[in-house]
# Entry
Amino acid sequence: MQKGMTLLELLVVIGILSVLLALVARSDWVAAFRLRSALSEARQAAALARTEAVRREAEAVLEVADGSLRVFLDANGNGEQDAGEPVLREFRPQGVAVEGGPWRFNGVGQPAGAGSLRLKAGRLEGLLCLRSGGAVEEVKGACN
# Structure
């Protein structure tokens, strides 16, 4: 009669457990990577909107439209993209839901008020706040 496990049996059990843990950890890792990437893209889009507003001395808008983030010039100042108003950048973050905005910048780069963008990837969430001076900051909790 044998008591305990052989070394080979122990190694097989450890191998199976390692594979199962890796699969669980991978799903969180992928969501975290997608969220980090989308937050970075959103910050870059806000910087583009502000820079182009100053460069062109015209209003620029960063908006959420159908799950995408879009930056466009708003020549008539109505806050909507009309025919002839160019899209400067548009991206749809894969696996990330985006809500909030729009963020509007005037011709000197000042925002028309503060605001937030909330990005969600699985159970992970990130929040970007647009400050009254035009800075974009990632925060935990809520924008103040």
Notes: Strands lie at 60-65, 68-73, 87-91, 97-100, 103-105, 115-121, 124-130, 136-139.
